[in-house]
Amino acid sequence: MGTSESVTENPPQSAPLTDDQWARILPYATPEDVSEGDYVFRSGDPSYDLILVDTAEVEIVRDSLWTLGESVLVVNGRHAVAGELGVLNGQGAFLSARVSRSGRVYRLPREALRRVMSEDDELCDVLLRMLWNRREALRKGPAALTLKFVGTESSREFEALQRFADRLDLVHTAFEIDPGNTYQYDHHNVAPEDLPIAFVQGEPIYRATPGLVADKLGLSYNGQSDEIVDLVVVGGGPAGLAAAIYGASEGLSTVLLDAVAPGGQAAATSRIENFLGFPFGVSGGDLIGQASLQALKFGVRVYAPCEAAQLRSTDDGLEVTLTDGRVIHTRTAIVTSGAAYRRLPLDRWNDFEGAGIYYAATQFELRHVFEHPVVVVGGANSAGQAALFLSSNGCPVRLVVRGDDLSARMSAYLVDRLHEDARVEVLTGANVTGLDGDGSLERVRIDAVGDVDARGLFCFIGADPATRWLPDLDRDRDGFLRTGTDIPLERLGEPWQALGREPLPFETSVPRVFAAGDVRRGSMKRVAAAVGEGSSAVASVHRALAG
To answer: Are 43 and 93 in contact (CB under 8 A)?
Structure first.
């Protein structure tokens, strides 16, 4: 099938660096003379350099896709910078940079960019803000078609793709298909058995998963077999992000892994009102987004979805084995793998996961239930925050709490606001006992009131620690990791005798393996506490490495 011509008239010009900024960044870069029509990087390149434009002119192009011709997005003139945020995290190029006027450019490889950002604070801020703003602008234009998801609304696999892309802040677009509309299948050139499909630069990935898409985009772990890093952080929630940021900012080569995408349960929180420094509150998604950008700023290598399957000691350090068999060699590790959401033991629960049952209340879930009645289950802060968020967006809410006292596990400010909200009905001493619906959730049975209409059930009944993959680490009866002085002396065997010391704060029963956040026994299950634990664990990492 041929492509139609598509020429962007008068594309915008990128803002240039100042003469002073240009003079300071130039010593890090390598000059290259280019001719009109040359490509300094192309979509699909597994890695690329940031391009500093001197006397040449470089246009950024979204290449032809399907029947769509190419689109020129922006033109980079004298002293402008060509590239976007993916250059920091190793994402392959999804746009092309083509020379539109012959002249000279300078190449700034990723490692050289890292040196600029670590040695020149002002240039670091200028470049980071430029790359971030560029990523945000690309979401709204033709560039979003370079990563396209197609699936049905009720598909949990389709939802997983969208959540993965949102959490990793990828430029993308998603199209929902009505299962009964054959025209839509023909229009997108897909078959029902192939869904969901991810189109990467127009190339389809059938029955796509976040892992397959990450591999295609260059976001999976790809370290050298003989590489040894200083620190691997397993889990990308607030504790893990804090640990990774503090470790990298203090000179440790740091890898951050997450089985889904950075954020953890915090990313599922619609609004956090008691986090230090945010008097007007902050959404979990915004907080995690800024933390993820900060991690890239300090050189953290973030890989997701990337799940750890095993952690073991070796003669010269530690090995983290991933579920795909790849191995990361490291001197230390911090386990911040958090906890897995608990589910209610109800018939048809599996049927409605992703089709009415949710473990988060954000804008992503809201679009499925907007202005429709919902049920929220749980008695802690996350449930209260979800109920208020949903009610503020037009949803009549029934909050189902098993206990008799709402204030037993919920902050007073939330309790007061819930009782004042006319859209929220609080049912204490109550339980959800049944689910019903045709394809998606339509009704919920509550023992205190009977059957009620509900487009969504939001479940916030706690979580179990994600520690089954760590059989060698000492855990309590509930699976939480013991650390520091909490570890029984009889669990401290020969390795500790050889070291001549006891576990440091946050250190587990295995030397140089630390734990922080929700996965740790005795931790306070709050975002601020998790951030504090993650950063504090890094102080112990330094002590362990020094010993």
So the answer is: yes
